[in-house]
Amino acid sequence: MLFFRSLIPAICWIFLLSTLALAQPGFAAQLVAYEGAKPVAVNAIKLSAEERQWIRANPKVIVASAQFPLYLFKDEHGHWSGLNNDMLNRISAMTGLNFVHEESFSTGQLLGRLEQGGADMSTTLAMSDERRDFLDFSHAFGGSAWIMVGRAGAPELQSLEQLSEKVLVLPARHAMEETIRRDHPRITLLTVKTYAEARALVESGEADATIENETGSQLYPIGQLKVGHTVEGSWEADRLAVRKGQPQLLSILNKALEAFPPAELRAMRLKWLDGIAPRPALSFWQQLSRWGCWGMFFVSLFALLSLLWNRRLAVLIKRHRDVEKDLGDQLAFQQALFDAMPDPMFVRDLQGRLIKCNKSYEEALSKRFDQVQGLRLIEGNILPRETAEMLHAEFIVQIETRKPRFTRRLLLFNNGVRDIDQWTVPFYGADGHVRGLLGGWTDIELRKSEGRCQCAR
What we know:
By secondary structure, this protein is of the alpha+beta class. The chain has 3 domains: 41-142 and 238-260, D-Maltodextrin-Binding Protein, domain 2 (3-Layer(aba) Sandwich); 144-236, D-Maltodextrin-Binding Protein, domain 2 (3-Layer(aba) Sandwich); 341-456, PAS domain (Beta-Lactamase, 2-Layer Sandwich), CATH 3.30.450.20. The protein is 45% helix and 21% strand. The strands form 6 sheets. It has a 5-stranded mixed beta sheet, with helices on both faces. Strands 16-15-19-18-17 form a 5-stranded antiparallel beta sheet. A hairpin with a 2-residue loop joins β17 and β18. α3 (49-57) crosses α9. The radius of gyration is 37 Å and the shape is elongated.
């Protein structure tokens, strides 16, 4: 009790400092944003027989993937990550679909792969009339607007009308390309392979503007660029694009999206997309106050952990000694029980080497355990050579087949032929893998003679 009473002041300090630190509004917002959702149990959705058959017939769903930061990208280890990857992992757990990413390096290459049947679906394509000719689109699971990006120093772009008689650069086969060609013919449209090339042309002055996803427009240093207004009426839903001719896959994806818990979807989007917009800079005193509070919090926490460490260490040492004693008692009991068996018994590993035997086994073969430990039957002159080779071969076959064996036979020992009931069974480890054989035998003549002696008495 005195020990815990001494901890009360430290606990009070930690509580007070934690409250002060968490009171900082900016930092509190970040904590809320990244605490995200708690793990949610994944329940398999109900699929039709036709849909289950499609999954069995298509063990892999090829996803044509182009890197788009935060939505879909490769991390430093080369693994796919991002919001859309999390979505696919969750859908995989709900449906049994196995998604395999195949990287494309531009929108045009990605669309070409889908058109030619080299991929089954994609996660980063916006819907357009051109794409609907060869793609089906799933239900929406979010969305964002298209943003105009121009040069710094130029008038802020507020509408596409401002780009009349000017050059707009877009990645080839952009979702907005068809709309701009149809509704704004006075805009000179230039196409390149990637968004990076489009931004570079705007910075160099060879183009007046480009159009990017709302998320993408905030991800890169502004430099010579300026983020303008949203393209009016261009809000685009996030959808999964499926190559036509796969109605079962589209139906499975839609069912998964319908069953997706809204709270978990919100948490995923917060995890990846919250905080993209620039945050106002904290003043020097706000930063000093915040880091000072957290510094005191960690110092106090370290002091508390130091006080608790000796107590915890003593408990762990005592527990370890108790476990060692219990284990020793169990091993001693098992050996005593093993030695008390009247019939010879043995344990052999996967190569047929002797691991353990009881006293009856030593007496039956006239060998001490330390003389035969680790030996196979064909080693050490334990049995006549013909007998040893036959039994060793049976043991190896039995380990491979994992079948128990019970047989009555006449067997030649070093001291003569005996009529025995022999048994051997495989034994398994906690991981379910076979570890060796447990076996033994009963000497029939010995049992009969013991029975006659008891009757005589």
